[in-house]
Amino acid sequence: MTTEPIKPRRSNSRQTGAPTITDVARLAQVSPMTVSRVINAESNVRASTREAVQAAITALNYAPNRSARRLAGAGQLRLGLLFSNPSDAYLSAFLLGSLEQASRADTQLIVQKCELDDHEREVAARLIASGVDGIILPPPLCDSPLVLDLLRDAGVPTVVVATSHPRAGFGAVSIDDRAAAQEMTQHLLDLGHQRIGFITGNPNLTASDERLAGYRAALEGRGIAFDADLVAHGLFTYRSGLDAAEELLDRDDPPTAVFASNDDMAAAAVAMAHRRGLDVPGDFTVVGFDDSAIARTIWPELTTIHQPIAEMSRMGVELLAGMLRDRRNGGSAEPQHLVLGYTLIRRQSDAAPRQRPRVRQRG
Q: Which residues contact 295 (CB under 8 A, 6 or more apart)?
C-alpha cells in the first residue's frame, strides 16, 4: 500500500485566483502599506498615489479581507447619506459611486431619503440619532441651511458634494461650476451663436448661481451685453426645462442656442424644439451640464459638461472616512475641499447657426 505525499495547502486567495493587497501594490507600484492606508481612507497619502491605488483596485476588482481588517483593529465606520434630487440619472450615478467606495473601504452606508421643505431637519436628526459616524450630503441638501445648521450644532463630521461655497468646518468635493459654464458658453460663441439662451437651475443651490455667472462672464469676455430676456428659470427638473424652453422659443427674437444648467432640462429643451418643428441642431442648438445618463439616451445625444458625479461621490465617502479615522487616532486636521476636473463633451446636439431664417411653429 502506497500513500501520496501530503502537498502543502495553497492559500485561499491563490485557490480562488482572487487578487491580494500585494497584487494591488505591485500594479500601482507602491508598498502594501500604502495600499492599506488608501483602503482605510487615511489622510497621509498623496492624491496622485491615492488615484494610482484606486485605479489598481478597480482594474483587479480587489476586495479587502474584512476579517483581516478587524484583526488589525480597523473598526467599521457607519456613514449616513441623505439624498433628495429631482434628477434620477444624477442620483443613480451618485449612489453607484458612493456604494462602490463604501464596499471597497469596508464602510457601512446608510441611505436615507429626505425631501426638501418636508421635515428635512427632522429626517436628518433621526439619522444622527441612529448612531452614524458621519454624513454625506449630495445636492440639493448640500446647500440646505436647516440641515447644515443641525449637523454643525450636533458636531457631526460631514462632507458636502457639489456645493460651490462649502461652509467652514465641512469637508467638500466639487468642480469649478463657473469655469465649466464659461467654457461651454465660449464653445457656443465659437460656433457663431450670438443669441444664447440660458436655463438656470434651482435658485437655492450655489452651483446654479455659479453656472449663470460663468455664462455671463463668457458673454462679457466677447463684448456681448447680458440680456435678461434670454434667461429662463428652471429647477433642475425635466418639467421646468419644458416650461423654460417654451418661454425662450416664444420670444419675438428667440435664441439660436440654449445652454441648460443640467441635462434633464436640456433634454426637455430638445423635446420642446421638436414639438415646434425645429431640427436639433440644424435649427436650434441645445447643450447641457452633468453628462448624466439622459445625455446619452436621447436623440440627438447632448453636448454637455462632464461632471464626474460617481467619482465625486466616491471621493466624498473616502474624504469622510479619512476625517473620521483621523479623529479616532487623535488627529485634528482641517476638513479638505477637493476640486475635481470637468470636461466639455461634444456630441450631436450643437452646430453653427443657420444662415437662413428659421421656420418657427407654435405648439
A: 263, 266, 267, 288, 301, 302, 304, 345, 347
